[in-house]
Amino acid sequence: MKNTYFDLIDQSYYFPQEGFDLRDGYLNFHGISLKYLIDKYKTPFKLLYLPRISDQIKKARNLFNLAIKKNEYKGKYYYCYCTKCCHFYHVVKKALSEGIHIETSSSFDIDLILKLYKMGNINKRVIIVHNGYKTEDYIRKIVKLNQMGFDNSIVVLDSKIEILRVKKYADELDMQFKIGIRMAINEEPQSAYHTSRLGIRQSEIMDFYRSHIEGDASFQLKMVHFFVDSGIKDNMYYWGEFKKALKLFVELKQACPDIKALNLGGGFPIRNNLGFEYDYEYIINELVNNIQSACDAVGVDHPDIFTEFGKYTVGESGAIIFSVLEQKQQNDAEKWYMIDNSLINTIPDSWSIYEKFILLPINKWSNEYSQVNIGGISCDHSDYYNSEDMNQQVILPNYQNDDDEPLYIGFFHTGAYQDAISGYGGIKHCLIPSPKMIIIDRDERGNFVDTVYRNEQTVDEMLDILGYG
Ligand SMILES: Cc1ncc(COP(=O)(O)O)c(C=O)c1O
Fold it and tell me: Model-level pTM?
């Protein structure tokens, strides 16, 4: 009896499932016919299904509000979108249409905020959480935002030195800043614990508060921030870091009742395989309930809860579709499907950090199947995707080289970070511009001659690519 690819999926997972179903033998993504898009645009192409962004925001917000109600929690919930995850105007605009707030991470991000303001997508009441390393340029632009009347701009201190830089502007310009403190976490143990470079050491925060913030009218400490960047997971490591952060939060809140917000950062996961299970409702309830208990135990007010979900907001809207150009049997056990682009250039996380994505064929679901490796057409040895270092096997339908229609495949839920990291069209991770390039040669007499080939990338060049032109 023929064992088809459809049988395999049908027996292994719930299928069809949210976002994926078959119609007339072809895969649909969020109800959209991928076959229609392939016929219209030809492969390879990326796609972003914007309504998914709204759905994700609504889901998280509803669950937080439900948990707040159920626990009679006194603070509010604020959803911020972390722009670094995907800066494109169409994405940020869609997220903002849900009435969310924003997190920034670098100097160019402030220009992006100003564009959004000019284009009427935000007003001056939007809450802007400024994370990331504060270069002089970044701080100067944050100062400008404050001067313009963006009263809910909160500078989250990433290091102890940053406060001196902000203080300089506060004194010179007689300004007051809303600030937050990011506490550094112990990163998830691989071989040994080490403390994240991001934020201020937990053991130093109380002293830092007393020596630099307490009693200084230039600063209103409003927020405590911590982010476990391996994600919000229901495991001992996450809850351990979370409880440590809560302990420090309530200590700080007792010393400074002005603190109104606890920011949990990002870290909600998305579906990266068809068997993915994650109980968002349970986790959110645990987060709210634990914050409440820690505050009640020492008699401080419940803070407003902020999140900055990036991957969760936009990841599940994205997909990238390829054709298989050729199959190669390199030895008895190894079959390669060569696709019409590069994996390194399109989903770089699959190569650099072995990130997994949902991988499905668009057609040929009634064919038998085999385990394969997927090869990109760049010349780089590492330009492949397979089961190595991953728990999932890569299984796709068999096909014949003389089939009328090639095999089409899609990587799904690729909407987060991949464009920034792969440098789509010239954008950069966290919008940190390409540095200037200097060319050095020797002249006929052997002296060095140096010239600038290109200056540092400008904000306009970057924002133009992102659709803010
Ligand atoms: C400070 C901060 N907040 C939020 C995020 C978003 O994380 P995620 O995409 O996992 O939700 C990041 C990601 O690096 C971050 O550094």
Answer: 0.95
